[in-house]
Write a structure and sequence with these properties.
Its main location: membrane. It is a multi-pass membrane protein. This protein is 83% helix and 2% strand. By secondary structure, it is an all-alpha fold. Helix 1 runs parallel beside helix 3, helix 2 packs antiparallel against helix 3 and helix 3 packs antiparallel against helix 5. The radius of gyration is 25 Å and the shape is elongated. The two termini are 47 Å apart.
Length: 207
């Protein structure tokens, strides 16, 4: 991901977070400032308009996210594949040279750490959006929807349903960019390297 795409990711996460905070403090602001100046119907109209504005902003943010995901999907897949290959190849060299050259093995280990950090950085960018989406869903649910009229309750329900499935960046059509994918890649790499290490041990024992 280039700088612009990272900026867009942060912007999207910030928009989701802002919407969540707006939903959370909506009632407190209205009750503190408007209760004595307006009747209940007027307050409901303001809440209705505010919720509709939030739904519109949420839709625009989702459209921006979809555009970002379409642009970055193939690139992220290529990057993930390259990082996995780099991690495996560096790990193989680490296993091979560690009995003979500790310094070179340390360099290989450092390279593996760098690759893992790059992978974690990519995953964290996506997790930032996932966290903001989940927070928005929680804040919509925590809104005092039970005090609203039926029309506003339906709008809140619509907002909750829209935020049930968090927005997630993807690498290719099937790989979700989340911490589960990160841990799966690490498990696969370690399993591969342990298998290679045991093969090396057995071959050296036979020789």
């Amino acid at each position: 991901m280039n700088f612009f795409q990272v900026f867009v990711v942060k912007f999207i996460a910030g928009m989701f977070a802002m919407l969540g905070q707006d939903m959370a403090r909506m009632h407190e602001e209205l009750e503190s400032s408007s209760t004595f100046l307006m009747n209940k119907q007027e307050i409901y109209k303001i809440i209705n308009r505010k919720i509709r504005d939030n739904i519109r902003m949420h839709q625009e943010t989702i459209e921006l996210f979809v555009a970002l995901r379409e642009v970055s999907q193939k690139k992220l897949l290529i990057i993930i594949v390259i990082l996995i290959l780099e991690l495996c190849s560096t790990g193989i060299w680490f296993v091979i040279v560690i009995p003979y050259n500790k310094f070179y093995a340390a360099k290989m280990a450092f390279s593996m750490v760098i690759v893992v950090m790059i992978l974690l950085y990519l995953i964290y960018s996506s997790e930032d959006i996932i966290y903001a989406c989940n927070q928005l869903n929680s804040m919509c649910y925590d809104t005092k929807w039970y005090l609203l009229s039926v029309k506003e309750k339906r709008l809140i329900l619509f907002m909750i349903l829209r935020t049930e499935n968090p927005c997630t960046l993807m690498a290719g059509p099937t790989i979700f960019m989340n911490y589960e994918t990160f841990s799966a890649i690490l498990r696969f790499t370690l399993s591969y390297l342990m298998t290679f290490y045991r093969i090396m041990e057995q071959s050296s024992y036979l020789n």
